[in-house]
Amino acid sequence: MNSLAYKTLQSLAKFKPKRETHTLAYSQLKETQRAHARALKLGTTILEPDIVYSYFGSKSLRNACKLFDEVPNWNVASATAIIGCFARCNHHEEAIYFFSRMIALNIKPNQFTFGTVIPSSTALQDFNSGRQLHACTIKIGLESNVFIGSAVVDFYAKLTGIKEAQRAFEDTHEPNVVSYTTLIRGYMKKEMFDDALALFRKMPERNVVSWNAMISGYSQMGYNEEAVNLFVEMLREGMPPNDSTFPCAIRAVANIAALGMGRSFHGSAIKFLGKFDVFVGNSLVSFYAKCGSMEDSLLLFNTLPRKNIVSWNALICGYANHGRGIEAVDFFERMQDTGVRPNSVTLLSLLLACTHSGLVDKGYTYFNKARVEDPGLLTPEHYACMVDLLSRAGRFEEAERFLQELPFVPGIGFWKALLGGCRIHSNMELGELAARKILALDPEDVSSYVMLSNAHSAAGRWQSVSMIRKEMREKRMKGVPGCSWIEIRSKLHIFVTGDRNHEQLDQIYQVLGFLSSNI
Predict the structure, then answer these.
(1) pLDDT digits (tens, 9 = 90+) for 179-196
(2) Angle at CA 350, nearest 5°, toward 341 and 287?
(3) Residues 287-319: pLDDT tens digits?
(4) Do the beta carbons of residue 153 and residue 183 sit within 8 Å?
(5) Cβ neighbourhood burial of 398 (10 Å; 0-12, 13-18, 19+)
(6) Quick one: pLDDT band at residue 29, thresholds 50, 70, 90?
(7) How far is Cα 434 from Cα 441, in angstroms, rounded to an integer?
């Protein structure tokens, strides 16, 4: 190769733009093209493969593809590096295309090539190409390689049933922590919690990612106690959590309203992370709000160095759920003043705040404003919230008219909202209509029977209560048992209606008996 052309190409390949601006990217593209043309004009047939990186920097994928076909001196390392470039830039179709060109050029792929290109099939959800790549690894004899095995396990766990992922895991020689964690995530996705936990216990070594996979899996699927217990176990085993661990653990402890334990998690976040990011901060704002400690929630909110829509939503929703509608509205107005645009969660929280605080006209105003200015924000939940708002305020004519003018057929939630308002205001005629609508949509819905029974009870219509309960017995319908819990010295005590399994049952009833006889 002409030495001047070679040096020019090499220097351009190493060139990286300091600022990602359109002008600079365009300039880089033109310089790269000129150097490429100059080299070809000089009769150069061998180009430095790294020149493709320059085309990446200028976002010219077409030229990168063309150059790949022109360059005759690719080897497995350079070709794999280019495929990796495309994959990292989320150009997965191009990554798979380059792999096919690599095969056409008789370049034998290695474990790193497959470990790079198989995740592109997963990202594209392209089952056929993924299966073909897996078959390729078997043909070459690389299917037992741990690097390839982990990618194949992830592919099958995300795109097919768990059986194929299990087989790929079993075919992997000496699976490592990545292989185990990938299959654990697959089990969690399929809600196979026992299998996930058994595999987690079998792991020869665990890292923070393994713990996070278990904790986040439990937390996302509503197994909050298991997530909290596992996080505590993680700390006891001396594994330092990271900024991905805390949002999952804090969300779980928030869902069981364990304020004392959550405070200790907050302390752990300060200990291990120092200054935490907006995701941990948002989870703490939401945690204190769910536990009813709005002062602590506001304190955390004010200390966040950067606030996003999730931060504002956590605070507004907290005020809404605790009947502090005026504060929720106030913070919504403040949010708009900062230039943060509300989303559908913000609007729903705002309507809930108005519902729980009796701010009917203000709620109507916000809803109508969204309907005119940003109708894309509205979902059936927002319409149902408006029915609830009007029904709780006893404005039944408006609620009925609102239901009649809905742009879709109302579901059970709408009629339950109306029935709830009827119970509050003892409007039995409309309540029975709402109950009939609910039972027509779902004859086995227990809650509607309970709500109607409570409405008759509030109105003193005991014969109707007796008839409803008799019908429930005949249909063998049972209400969901009530559940409550209390946290004492960082230990959660759960009580369910009719449950007599608590270890301190006798002492509890003894105290209750004393209170009953002395009050």
Answers:
(1) 999 999 999 999 999 999
(2) 90
(3) 999 999 999 999 999 999 999 999 999 999 999
(4) yes
(5) middle
(6) very low
(7) 11
Contact 198, 229 (CB under 8 A): no
Distances 287 to 227, 281, 300 between C-alpha atoms, Å? 15, 10, 10
Dihedral sign (CA 211, 262, 318, 395) = positive
How far is 149 from 142, CA to CA, in rounded Å? Answer: 9
In terms of C-beta density within 10 A (0-12 exposed, 13-18 middle, 19 or more buried), how is residue 402 classed? Answer: buried
Structure tokens of 72?
A: 């005759």
Q: Residue 244 CA to chain centroid, in angstroms?
A: 12
Phi, psi angle pair for 487, to nearest 5°: -105, 125
**Nearest in space to 261 (alpha carbons), one of 294, 289, 299, 288:** 288
Helices (H) and strands (E) counted in the chain, each on its own, are 29, 2
Q: What does the alpha-carbon distance between residue 460 and residue 470 come to, in Å, rounded to a whole number? A: 17
What is the rounded CA–CA span in Å between residue 238 and residue 82? Answer: 40
Cα–Cα separations (whole angstroms), residue 180 to 146, 172, 190, 219: 11, 11, 16, 19
Cα angle 296, 301, 306; round to 5: 155
Measured CA to CA, the distance from residue 301 to residue 315 in angstroms comes to: 8
Best CA proximity match to 496, nearest among 479, 478, 481, 514: 481
